[in-house]
Design a protein that fits this description.
By secondary structure, the chain is α/β, with parallel strands linked by helices. The protein has nine helices and eight strands. It has a three-stranded mixed β-sheet. Strands 6-7-8 form a three-stranded mixed β-sheet, with helices on one face. A two-stranded antiparallel ribbon has the order 1-2.
């Protein structure tokens, strides 16, 4: 089963900064492009960190207060010399990133886990090649229900589980897949639902499947549905 990768939905034209980019220029870039954050890269396009509106606001909040001094030796030297604050001193590092060949699902999990709105996208040499946002990833869930149903029938039921297309009735509404019918073994049901949940655009799976044979109490050495589908689950 092929999942949509980050490289297929990312934005290639990336707004970025360098460590020496001044505070005001960073603020201008964010406002001009209507974005909430941007990556900070070195001369080789390697991502050093990310600077966001939150970083800028935190600095502004410290102005005129007895808040913490600028970060690190560079920040203290900058303050002593009266130099403008730079992206390298403002940024959050290390950056949370994904690779162009990562799946959209993996990128979404990374965003949720780290509470970020966008992720720099890297190539195989760890260089910046794009940016992916929550909106980009959510676009995957706008996939037509008819396309999802066709993939469920063809790739899950027929190719992975070797079931006849008329064995299970599949309906899809707003990304929710409903399965109705009877399969041969009870163990086929969780395998089918697990495979379907991994498809791009699937929001949830409702199983109304029944079974002919309850093989849940078979010992591991006894034959059951531990062939192609189980191996697929272990390897993906």
């Amino acid at each position: 089963m092929k999942h949509k990768v980050v490289g297929a939905v990312m934005t290639i034209d990336v707004v970025k900064a360098h460590p020496a980019t001044p505070f005001k220029q960073v603020a201008h870039l964010l406002a001009r492009h209507g974005i909430s954050g941007l990556p900070v890269v070195d001369d080789d396009d390697k991502v050093l960190g990310v600077v966001s509106e939150t970083d800028l606001l935190a600095h502004q909040a410290r102005q005129g207060t007895d808040g913490p001094p600028p970060r690190g030796r560079a920040g203290r030297r900058r303050a002593a010399a009266g130099r403008p604050l730079t992206a390298g001193e403002l940024m959050t590092a290390p950056a949370v990133t994904v690779h162009a060949l990562d799946s959209v699902a993996r990128a979404a999990r990374t965003m949720v886990a780290h509470g970020v709105q966008r992720l720099p996208v890297l190539d195989e040499e760890e260089r910046l090649v794009g940016i992916v946002t929550r909106r980009d990833l959510l676009g995957v869930f706008l996939r037509p229900d008819a396309d999802i149903r066709a993939q469920v029938v063809d790739e899950v039921l027929v190719r992975s589980l070797w079931l006849s297309p008329d064995t299970v009735s599949v309906s899809v509404a707003d990304g929710v897949v409903t399965l109705t019918g009877q399969v041969e073994r009870r163990s086929e049901i969780p395998v089918a639902t697990a495979l379907i949940r991994r498809l791009d655009g699937v929001v949830d799976v409702v199983s109304r499947l029944t079974y002919h044979l309850d093989d849940s109490r078979l010992r591991p050495e006894e034959p059951a549905l531990h062939g192609l589908a189980d191996r697929w689950l272990r390897n993906h």
